[in-house]
Specification:
This protein is of the alpha/beta class. Helix content is 25%, strand content 33%. It has 5 helices and 12 strands. The structure holds glutamine.
């Protein structure tokens, strides 16, 4: 399978690694700009966006990642990762934001930890998948070239833009492999 990198500072990077390995990808952990060499896809996991953003900045990975995403690399960004990928974040913008994807993220828009929930989401117009939402962001003002893959109560919770797949929920915590499979299909060979 393709060589994919998982940003491994904080958050659910282990779960992403395990899911991707179960699909036959060869997984590299990303902590420094050099780690990006030869990688065709990158996962930016959920966790705490301010913490991950600070690490991205301090490590020098933020500009390196931005450059490689603009060039050819695919991206799967979940929850906090998706917040960091968006061009705009409501409120104070976290440090280390990649700011590539034309959309605005509203942090914690569905409430705090205790308002975590699961929901059945029709995936790309087909069978539902179970979405796990933990302090999830809302996506607003999706820009040109975006395509919604899943909605919850009419609001987009997963969408595609170029080779970037952004997801408000946590596919790495569920059993359904379709989100990761979709990401691997975006990785150039
Ligand atoms: N609300 C968190 C943040 O803003 C994201 C939560 C998550 O990734 N599960 O970083």
């Amino acid at each position: 399978g393709p060589a994919v990198g998982v940003v491994a500072f904080q958050g659910a990077w282990r779960e992403h690694r395990n899911t991707l390995e179960s699909l036959g990808a060869s997984v590299r952990l990303l902590r420094r700009p050099e780690d990006l060499e030869g990688v065709s896809g990158v996962v930016l996991p959920g966790g705490e966006s301010t913490v991950i953003g600070r690490f991205l900045e301090q490590s020098g990975l933020a500009p390196a990642l931005r450059a490689s995403l603009e060039e050819r690399t695919a991206l799967l960004a979940t929850c906090a990762g998706a917040i960091l990928a968006c061009r705009e974040v409501e409120g104070s913008p976290p440090q280390g934001r990649l700011g590539l994807v034309p959309a605005r993220a509203v942090r914690n828009a569905y409430g705090g930890q205790r308002e975590s929930f699961e929901a059945d989401l029709p995936w790309e117009g087909g069978d539902s998948l179970r979405g796990i939402f933990i302090r999830a962001p809302r996506f607003e003002d999706l820009g040109e070239g975006t395509r919604v893959l899943a909605r919850h109560r009419g609001e987009p919770v997963a969408f595609l833009w170029n080779r970037c797949l952004l997801c408000a929920f946590h596919p790495e915590l569920g059993e359904d492999l379709r989100v990761h499979r979709r990401f691997l299909d975006l990785c150039p060979s």
